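Page 37, continued from 36.
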């Protein structure tokens, strides 16, 4: 075999190997598929779209929510007990990096400048189901505001 031909075979082989490795890398960084339980969490949460925000709202009411009373109520109605505040909710479950978010994961933000102060539920497709100053809403997590406030995520399902 001529050197130029050997070189071409080696380059093609290496390119194929690098491509396969890159493909494997891309596959392993994707989120887990939505489960029936996570779909039910989102379905039960979307029933409350538009319900007003009320700071410190009790967790046994449904006519107003703050962010953590909303997540606590929705998860409780789906058989998962969560602590009351966003700070304490951020300490349970399994830590998940942003690139591995899956439907039903809790996502946490620093909106006050003093650590974790907001929580929402990842709804898939770059959306978060949460109670904000505008009430319960589906919001994009890819806006410059939410991107700059992101802290961490936890999987509790």
């Amino acid at each position: 075999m001529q050197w130029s031909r050997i070189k071409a075979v080696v380059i093609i082989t290496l390119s194929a190997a690098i491509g396969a490795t890159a493909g494997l890398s891309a596959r392993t960084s994707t989120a887990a598929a939505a489960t029936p339980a996570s779909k039910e969490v989102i379905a039960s949460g979307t029933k409350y779209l538009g319900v007003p925000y009320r700071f410190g709202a009790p967790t046994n009411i449904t006519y107003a929510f703050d962010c953590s009373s909303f997540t606590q109520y929705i998860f409780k109605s789906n058989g998962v007990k969560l602590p009351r505040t966003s700070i304490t909710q951020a300490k349970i479950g399994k830590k998940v990096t942003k690139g591995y978010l899956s439907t039903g994961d809790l996502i946490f933000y620093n909106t006050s400048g003093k650590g974790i102060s907001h929580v929402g539920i990842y709804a898939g497709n770059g959306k978060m189901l949460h109670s904000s100053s505008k009430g319960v809403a589906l919001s994009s997590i890819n806006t410059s505001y939410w991107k700059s406030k992101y802290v961490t995520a936890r999987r509790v399902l």
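The longest strand covers residues 118-124. Flag for discussion at group meeting. The first helix runs from residue 3 to 28.
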